[in-house]
Amino acid sequence: MSAVVDTNVLVFDTFEDSDSHKEAVEALDALETWVIPGIVFHEYVWFMKDQGVGVEETRVKVNEYLTDVKTRYRPVDADDVAFSLRNARRLREYNDLLILSSAKRLGCPLLTFDKGLSTSARNLGVDLAK
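Request: output the structure for the sequence above.
Response:
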């Protein structure tokens, strides 16, 4: 099974002391393919920066995800931008809606631990990965 992977899944997978680490590892292991939109890598790097993680450690982790045999990198396209702006009630939803739009456009379920994004996915007809 393939799924579009949200940023929080990568964050929880990375940090072993996170509350959802085990669930993230198991969810990623269960997938055949990780469809990762470009915006997820940007958010991941920004998160690492905000946490004070150094550039070399961040580079290593991003490279691990980019080069994993399961990873399918997918750029965000113009339709995703239009979808996000059309459906956003607040601009802080923009990035999440880009990820959601990618899942919708690619016909893949979404893997996320974000309850708000999960609700938006269900409301917009996107399946959630289990």
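The radius of gyration is 14 Å.
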